[in-house]
Design a protein that fits this description.
Helix content is 31%, strand content 21%. With 180 residues, it is α+β, with helices and mostly antiparallel strands. A hairpin with a 7-residue loop joins strand 6 and strand 7. The longest helix has 12 residues, at 40-51.
Length: 180
């Protein structure tokens, strides 16, 4: 028997309120499973809303997205649910599909979510632009729970397998135009 300490949700939240470590949510259920296994979708949605200054609690986001899944079986957040949730709370988000296209859309954005494969597992992560033009990424992988890098570096190291989808938001300080 190992005496591994169980992490708490509070340990997975940064000082400025972002969820950085999904592993800290093993005591929380999502879609019939522990959220440390399949909680990346609601975590990314919470972090995006937090980046946009929308006040909400992480458990409210988790409960609402969980209820949007009509079938009660294990699994990750479905894209249908993510789209429905974002349409309700972030109606001006844009969806871009394709590795290069998604990376470029993300690079031009203020904040967003990627749906991609980390290793060979489907995964959602969130990101927000920093004042220096790089991006802060949340809940990417062990050792990359809260990291800052260029969008190019992230794409080269992580957007490698499967379909890549970017769900991005542009603000007045970084408005995307058709010429970009």
């Amino acid at each position: 028997m190992t005496n591994e300490r169980i992490l708490t949700p509070a340990e997975g939240i940064s000082a400025d309120g972002y969820i950085t470590d999904q592993d800290c949510f093993s005591s929380v259920r999502y879609r019939t499973m522990r959220a440390d296994i399949n909680g990346c979708g609601w975590i990314a949605a919470y972090n995006l809303r937090h980046a946009l200054g929308q006040e909400t609690g992480w458990d409210e986001v988790r409960q609402e997205m969980d209820a949007m899944h009509t079938l009660r079986f294990p699994g990750p957040t479905l894209m249908r649910v993510m789209r429905e949730y974002l349409t309700k709370y972030v109606p001006d988000y844009r969806e871009t599909v394709g590795r290069e296209e998604a990376a470029q859309a993300a690079k031009d954005s203020f904040a967003g979510i990627f749906r991609y494969q980390e290793g060979h597992e489907p995964h959602f992560i969130s990101f927000v632009r920093q004042p220096d033009g790089r991006f802060r990424f949340f809940n990417v992988a062990d050792g990359l729970e809260d990291s800052v890098m260029s969008m190019e570096d992230f794409a080269e190291g992580h957007l490698l397998h499967g379909t890549v989808i970017a769900l991005t938001v542009y603000d007045n300080r970084n408005e995307r135009t058709d010429a970009s």
